[in-house]
Amino acid sequence: xxxxxxxxxxxxxxxxxxxxxxxxxxxxxxxxxxxxxxxxxxxxxxxxxxxxxxxxxxxxxxxxxxxxxxxxxxxxxxxxxxxxxxxxxxxxxxxxxxxxxxxxxxxxxxxxxxxxxxxxxxxxxxxxxxxxxxxxxxxxxxxxxxxxxxxxxxxxxxxxxxxxxxxxxxxxxxxxxxxxxxxxxxxxxxxxxxxxxxxxxxxxxxxxxxxxxxxxxxxxxxxxxxxxxxxxxxxxxxxxxxxxxxxxxxxxxxxxxxxxxxxxxxxxxxxxxxxxxxxxxxxxxxxxxxxxxxxxxxxxxxxxxxxxxxxxxxxxxxxxxxxxxxxxxxxxxxxxxxxxxxxxxxxxxxxxxxxxxxxxxxxxxxxxxxxxxxxxxxxxxxxxxxxxxxxxxxxxxxxxxxxxxxxxxxxxxxxxxxxxxxxxxxxxxxxxxxxxxxxxxxxxxxxxxxxxxxxxxxx
Length: 459
What we know:
- By secondary structure, the protein is an alpha/beta fold.
- Helix content is 35%, strand content 21%.
- It has 17 helices and 19 strands.
- Strands 1, 2, 10, 11, 12, 13 and 19 form a 7-stranded mixed beta sheet that branches.
- Strand 11 and strand 12 (244-249) form a beta hairpin.
- Helix 2 (63-72) packs across helix 17 (431-449), helix 8 (173-182) packs across helix 9 (185-192) and helix 11 (266-272) packs antiparallel against helix 12 (278-285).
- The longest helix is centred in the last third of the chain and has 19 residues, at 431-449.
- Residues 455-459 have low confidence and may be disordered.
C-alpha cells in the first residue's frame, strides 16, 4: 500500500494533523495501537457517573482549541463559577490558594518572613546560567515557602513532577525571560499586563463538554475518512527507503509513504527511530514519564462536611500525605454524578511518590478514602462507587537539560527529510499545545510535499 503521509498516533495531536490534511485533500493513513482515538483523552460512563480518564478541562484562552471547536460546531461548557477557588491542603487544613497580590499578603500559606522574601524579589540581581531547576530558581528569587507551599503543589497538579528536577526555562520560560528583561519576576509580570481599554474577549474560565473532553476528539475523528484510520494496529518497524519510508505493521502489512508524522510518546518514538536515527532516539529515551494512578470515588454528598466550593485541592510535596491532589468533579459540571452523590477524582504517584501508584487496588482505595477523611475531618466516608485508572508512563517530565535534548532532536530531524516528530514532550503538555503542534505539523507536511522534487501518490 502507498500513501503520501502516515501518522503514527491518534491522540489529540495526531487527530488534529489528520483533520488538517483531510481538509487539504492530502492522502494519509492514521494509525493507532488502541481501539479508540484520543489517547489519554477518554471519558467513561460508569454506574451513573461520568468519569474522565485523563485531562478534565481546558481554558477559554486556548485559542487553537477554541478555533477548532468553532470549525467543528462544538459548544464548550464552562465550569461552575465556584471553580475559581483553589485549595492547598496545608498543616491539616484546606487553605484557599491566593489568586491576587492582596490575598498573597494575607495568606497563612506564607509566614511574614516568606512574604517579605517575595517583596524583596523586586531588588534581587538576576542569576547566571541558562538552565536551572524550578526549585533552585524559586528558592533564589522567592524563598522556600513559595516553592514548598505554592509552586510545588501547582507543579504536582500539572506535571505530577519534582521541582528539584524540572527545568525552569522548559517549564516556565516566561519567568526566566522576565528575570532577564526586567530584572525581576514581579516587574516582568506587571509590565506584561495589557494597558488601555479592557479586552472584549471571553473572560478566562475553564471549559469542557457535556459528555467530557472526548467529545472533541470524537468530533475530529468523524471528519476523517474511515478508510484512512487504522485502529488496534501497532507499528512494528520504520525504515528509510528510496521513495520515503517503509512502515511494517504488527500484522505484517507494509506501507510505503512519502512522509511520516510521529505523535506517540517519546519512549515509543525512540524505539521506532532506533535504526533510522540513533542520535534522535537517544535523547528521546531520556525523557522520563512517571507512574500515576487516578482514583474516582463516588460518595454520598451529605457525608462530606464541606461545601466543595472550588476546583479541588493540591498538596505541598513536603507534606507526608499520599495524594497529589483531588478534583471535585461533580462540583464543576452538572451530570457528573447521580443526584445526592459527589464525584471526587484523586491523583496518586507521580515523580515524587512512584510507589503510591503501584499499590494494589485495595490499598489504593483505602489510602485514598483515609486521606479524604483526614482532609474533610470525618470518619464516615464510604464510597458508593470507585474506579481506578493506572498509567505506568503518564506525563512527560521537562527535567534539567530538556531544551538541550530537544535541540539534539531538532538537529537530527534536519538530516531525515520527510520525518516529522511532535507530541506533548516537545513544545508543551497542555491540550492547546497539542492542537497547535498538530496544526503546525500538518502545515510542515504540506510544505514538504509541495517541493518540486516530490511527486505525491494516492493510496
